Amino acid sequence: MKKRIGIIALLLAGVASLPLAAQPMAGMEAQKETEQARHQGTGKVVSVDRAKSRIKLAHEPIKSLGWSAMMMDFSVVKVSLLDGLKEGDAVRFELGKTKPDELVWVIVKIERK
Ligand SMILES: [Cu+2]
């Protein structure tokens, strides 16, 4: 009787550990991807919208994304990134994604050149 319970417990433990083992791996993969997906760019500030946490940049080509030079709006991950930035400033910035499956690139870092 004791032996049988022991075997059942072992079987249950084996089944239960499968999804548990897979979860941290998936999390690590997602994190790795987020960290790796960063792109550097340079450009000039066209306008700053602190209320919407957005900045319009005239950016230089970003080869790692296959983007040519253009003017476009970006969201920033936190509004404090916009501190001290104003129209006409030459900047270097870094694009990333807050979630791995997000489609839009957001500014995770930006500073005056
Ligand atoms: Cu662009």
Q: Kindly state the percentage of residues in helix.
A: 25-40%
Radius of gyration based on Cα positions = 23 Å
Low-confidence regions: none
Question: What is the level 1 CATH name of the largest domain?
Answer: Mainly Beta
Shape: elongated
- How far the N terminus sits from the C terminus, by CA atoms, comes to 75 Å
* CATH fold node name of the largest domain: OB fold (Dihydrolipoamide Acetyltransferase, E2P)
Instruction: Return the string of H and E elements.
Output: HEEEEE
- Side by side, the strands of the main sheet go 3-2-1-4-5
User: Beta-strand level of the residues, as a percent range?
Assistant: 25-35%
- What is bound: which ligands? copper (II) ion
Number of strands: 5
**CATH-scheme architecture of the largest domain:** Beta Barrel
Q: Can you give the mean pLDDT?
A: 82
Structural domain tally: 2
Give the class from helix and strand content and strand pairing. Answer: alpha+beta
Question: How many helices does DSSP assign?
Answer: 1
Instruction: Please identify which CATH superfamily of the largest domain we are dealing with.
Output: Copper binding periplasmic protein CusF
Main beta-sheet strand count, sense and barrel state: 5 strands, antiparallel
